[in-house]
Amino acid sequence: MGVIRLGYVHLRVTDLEEARRHYEDILGLKVVHEEFGKLYLKAWDEWDHHHLVLEEGGTGLSKFGFKVTGPESLEKFEKSIAAFGCTVNRMSKGENYAVGEGLRTELPSGHVMELYYEIEYVGTEVGTLNPHPRPKELRGIGAPALDHMLLSAERPDILERFFTECMDFRVSERVVSELGENGELIGTWMFVTHKTHDIAFIQGKDKMFHHMGYKLMDWSAIRHAGEILGMNDVSVGFGPDIHGLSRGQTIYFFDPAGNRNEVFAGGYEAFRDWPTITWTADQLLRAVGHIGREMKENHFTVLT
Amino acid sequence: MGVIRLGYVHLRVTDLEEARRHYEDILGLKVVHEEFGKLYLKAWDEWDHHHLVLEEGGTGLSKFGFKVTGPESLEKFEKSIAAFGCTVNRMSKGENYAVGEGLRTELPSGHVMELYYEIEYVGTEVGTLNPHPRPKELRGIGAPALDHMLLSAERPDILERFFTECMDFRVSERVVSELGENGELIGTWMFVTHKTHDIAFIQGKDKMFHHMGYKLMDWSAIRHAGEILGMNDVSVGFGPDIHGLSRGQTIYFFDPAGNRNEVFAGGYEAFRDWPTITWTADQLLRAVGHIGREMKENHFTVLT
Amino acid sequence: MGVIRLGYVHLRVTDLEEARRHYEDILGLKVVHEEFGKLYLKAWDEWDHHHLVLEEGGTGLSKFGFKVTGPESLEKFEKSIAAFGCTVNRMSKGENYAVGEGLRTELPSGHVMELYYEIEYVGTEVGTLNPHPRPKELRGIGAPALDHMLLSAERPDILERFFTECMDFRVSERVVSELGENGELIGTWMFVTHKTHDIAFIQGKDKMFHHMGYKLMDWSAIRHAGEILGMNDVSVGFGPDIHGLSRGQTIYFFDPAGNRNEVFAGGYEAFRDWPTITWTADQLLRAVGHIGREMKENHFTVLT
Amino acid sequence: MGVIRLGYVHLRVTDLEEARRHYEDILGLKVVHEEFGKLYLKAWDEWDHHHLVLEEGGTGLSKFGFKVTGPESLEKFEKSIAAFGCTVNRMSKGENYAVGEGLRTELPSGHVMELYYEIEYVGTEVGTLNPHPRPKELRGIGAPALDHMLLSAERPDILERFFTECMDFRVSERVVSELGENGELIGTWMFVTHKTHDIAFIQGKDKMFHHMGYKLMDWSAIRHAGEILGMNDVSVGFGPDIHGLSRGQTIYFFDPAGNRNEVFAGGYEAFRDWPTITWTADQLLRAVGHIGREMKENHFTVLT
After folding, report:
1. Chain B partners of C223 at a C-beta cutoff of 8 Å?
2. Which one, A24, A99, C237, C297, has least CB within 10 Å?
């Protein structure tokens, strides 16, 4: 009982056709459904109908959803969220294309989060009978699946409480301004699967989106992604490098609307019985880039 | 509530000093405790006291343990195992060095399995404050952590029932003799974390051990492991290759007593809402080695 | 003045259309010219018109050519080859499609070798102005270029003398039956560029072909090649593994006619002032496969 | 006859013991000889006595040497250099420790270059009989060998003429301010082996040193180097990234004196019959970093 994984992200883009080219040609996703002003996309190694809905108009996060195990999870989370003091509403099957009934809430950071347990089944591109290890044909980066999301919040500490108290997440890593009682929480990385993080929050404006991350196989896939990005003149924000925080191997880049994407490989397998790792703000550059330790100002300031 | 991970393996070895050299110099584990006839070892990225106990005398699996969340998990599994018809006994704190109270049961395959929720905390070699992505010094292969185990059983189907019904595991992949009603279960790969498998059973003699797998970072770490194995004249059973089943990148090799080890990288992240993948026996070579599709007879016959 | 590189290989194949599919879809070469019973192919990172001519009928090597610097090299080699006691003839421009005038000789092993200094210029797929690091689209393995060739000869020692005395090659590595005076030469690896080998001979029947090797970027490209081979059911002879001899990372596989191909990465940069490395026959398995040290009987016996 | 390779670099460092730690612990070189104020170092895969001499006092390049084939090369280059209008002097055996007789000249850029054909033979760490593919123990990055050097010159065009006309180098790639007659040469990359470059010059102050590059096996070795650099707080200038120019995979970093080092992998094999690749200045960021396309100001301005 509980959250299964980050299921979908609804992202606003200024131009739907430009966005389509980016997510199809560069990231290698497939459009599985279209409706007026919206594109629904999935990655090759995902079973569910979609993980990304591009919505024309503006930039940034429209809303996102976690898939949960079933109606009993909805009931549990309905209570825990209400007890935390957030408004939570039922949503009906069909309010989201291909998605069943669920809950909708506004996080303390103003982000809209949905919980659902049913979504149309499409299947991966390699199938369930004597499958190949990957599809014969891949486009661009060929990202297999959505991995995680980083948002900003004025009070990351409240989001940390929300996700650990209401949603049964654990904190894998945290950045604090300093050790000790005066230390302020600058960022928190949380998991409910065994990823190093399923969702994370850094200090910044409420309601804003930092990036969503796609999981690649390894460091050679990160280079391959870099080749694709370079050949297509995609704007790169940071990387390739190794994160100190999470140990992930990474490149950040921007979609044509300016929303940040990440390709991510490696990172350890997190377990619920492990202690939280702490980073102090003076080591922030190392937490972000173990090798380069320098980044564009915009890594911390550009949010959508 | 439930199983956290494969916690420890007690392995019999014919010569303790030879085994020490193998697991320390080749795999890069560290001896954390010694007592008469036994060595306790951990890997650098593990928090718990040990994951391997080498016991002098013979070969093969002596017993193994899954770490569970707490006493409430013990109670739950005590009932579910008894209900399945297996004998289950309480074990006391200290019966296993550094390990707390728990349960002990004999699987339908005759293997001895323990469940426990406490083990002495040692910590990883990189720590919890502004950690490096890996230790400065690594020995041999430098395996970060134990990953999974493959055992043999006369009736894999019963073991599959045991782990899914009593222990809340899911089946990621199966090999069947043929599709349809006459198909017999030849092997079953099961997970309780998000690994492609935490434990697996293939058809063979009861009580026997096929291999335990260590998780490496990626395909380049597999090559690095291969360099170490070759330079130290370690007997290699199979690989490097890509498993069709699990997509893991792999080398199998033998410790001086003849127990099989595996180094394993990649593999997908498994989720509980996914369908099981099926392999038919005619594709078995592809399931084991996507590239080479040929293996030494001994891959299926040598068990300890 | 001298040999520039292994320029082209004419290979006999039993079925031209099957061979086209193999070399185009699997290796990723491009057909640049066709004529009755022949296909001419090049790889994406080669400047010259072709490096492979597939000739319908039979299997094995029809002939091969080294590109040399100019007419003065032809004159020099004409003399050195004649002095060695081999017959050498002039060949005219146009005897080979797109290739200029040259020499043709029969090696002491019976293989037909040509030397030429002109071949039509086509250019790589990335061009000469602000090029991308690779083409945007690659097919199959996407082999960038031909690398080397291994042939068999009853007397490798004579071939070693031929290439070092007449053609200015150096010996990078050798396999001998034993050290000392009674040692017989079992194989010789020779270079004229800075490759670990441009051509090599192992003991076996005269006139026979062991394999031609394509150079890939690295070990991750070897895995990528293995994925392609596996997904297309290409028969793999050996690998992935690391050669002890040459340190190359390798997979051997067969075209539909049974001619052996290799994908090869790594290997050191050879220099003419370096001593020759010697392998003794008792270490032959390690010379071929540093990790696996076992190979199918056919690796030594199947020649075309 | 001609140049074999870049043989040695004499580099000035402000503190010899700090430099020793950097080149031994970080790059993994070995000190083979010490004398007052000087350390001589070699890498594990080099046969010659040393490739690096650290000289206490100041920063930047003291001088460098190319190994040539023999006395006949000295005679030839003595004439060609004099004909170019540069002063060239004989140097005696022993003027450089372990190095035989040679020539010394001052390049048009003011850099001191030596040519020699004898240097004490030490051998690689894997030897010449049934060698392992690498040493069992490597320190830090474990760089196998020196690869190339980049210097600055007020007139790169003159250096290009010098190396092509006097020394038989070829130009693999060039950067020009613009195409056409008004285009000024901003940088030139030249080879005499089959590397993408053995030496290169960019526009800047005369006599200055940009970096020397070490060749690593591949992109995974670049990451491994990055891990070492980060764990040891070495100042990184740029990377990891892929050069558009040369296709090399790279990280630039600084020794404690501020001299720039590079680790470099990949890059194509250059041949003398190939056309030169041209980059225009507007694509300079892409030439340096195909992925990131942005770099610290200091990449172009910091020279020693």
Report:
1. 219, 242, 249
2. C297
